[in-house]
Amino acid sequence: MKTRITELFGIKYPIVLPGMSWISTPELVAAVCNAGGIGWLATGPLSTKETEASIKKIRELTKKPFGAGATLLMPGAKENLEVLIDMKVPVINVSLGKPDAIVKRVHKYGGKVIQTVVNEKHALAAVKGGVDALQVTGYEAAAHGGKVANLCLIPFIREKVDVPIVAAGGFSTGQGFAAALALGADGVAMGTRLATTKESPVHPRTKQAHLDADVEDTLYSNRFDGLWCRVLKSKSSEKSIKAGMNLFKAAIVGPRIAKALDLPVMKIMLGMLAQPGKMITLAQMATAFDKIKAATEAGDYDVKGVQLIGQCCGLIHDIPTVKETIERIIKEAKSANTNIGNMLK
After folding, report:
1. What's the pTM?
2. % pLDDT > 90, the chain
3. How far is residue 24 CA from its own chain's centroid?
4. Given CB 3.0 to 4.6 Å as the disulfide criterion, which of 19, 80, 170, 187 pairs with 5?
5. Model confidence pLDDT, tens digit, residues 6-26
6. Please, where are the H alpha helices in the chain?
């Protein structure tokens, strides 16, 4: 198969594993790469030592191209980014920040940069900053999607830019994959689908919740982690969204963030105090991280934890291997293309 994404990244199929915290581990990233796609290591919850070890692990598990995420808004992101650049990670997925300075450094060693965006403003800024591709995330996506569904968002962004596009949000089948290409994308990201595979580290109980959910069993709110975010509907997620965040909670999470990321407490606290608005967002994210981790690792998605999930959960009915998943998607896409071709004759 040949698209601008397969050519850009040197992969067989334009299928991407996005960087999902506690899910996009070295093992799952490598499984996707070995099956012909490409994955982004999730570095958000990792210290620099953990990031370095994870990259080494990926390189032990696969010889294929791979990538890693850098969520620039988060504490520790800049430190982790230095690790990614020093280790010459082939592809860096930048989100929630400007890519300009990063692009130059990554291009210097021959790497590529793909920016996650949710609207025209961010897409144009990213292209101006020199990125090689965009990961355009629509309303249907798990976690931080935009407010416009991909049926409109992908062709709208395609009209504005000429770089390769990976469509993210709502894609879990070959039919959806074919539709994304028809809309103007050059590849798709399939977070929820690839999180529901045998190699995925998601707890079995939470994986079963993926299978039990339908397309209406998600919630979309900016009160969970400070950004517009889609989660699995449950008693705990409804409670978390209703509670939101307050200044008291914001003031006490700094030390926890610092400990988790192996950073000086004073650095985190000063950074948060210097930007009061950012402090609230970071506090919400830190509190949300505990809940996401509980759902992902411990299987508690309904009491204390909250699971990030896309609307395509209603189209997922089994837990195959990554290889089986990707092969099925390609087979379905080819069949869909044939059927459409016959109807358009």
Report:
1. 0.90
2. 79
3. 8
4. 187
5. 999 999 999 999 999 999 999
6. 4-9, 26-34, 48-61, 77-86, 100-108, 120-128, 150-160, 174-183, 191-195, 204-212, 235-243, 247-252, 254-261, 265-274, 276-298, 322-343
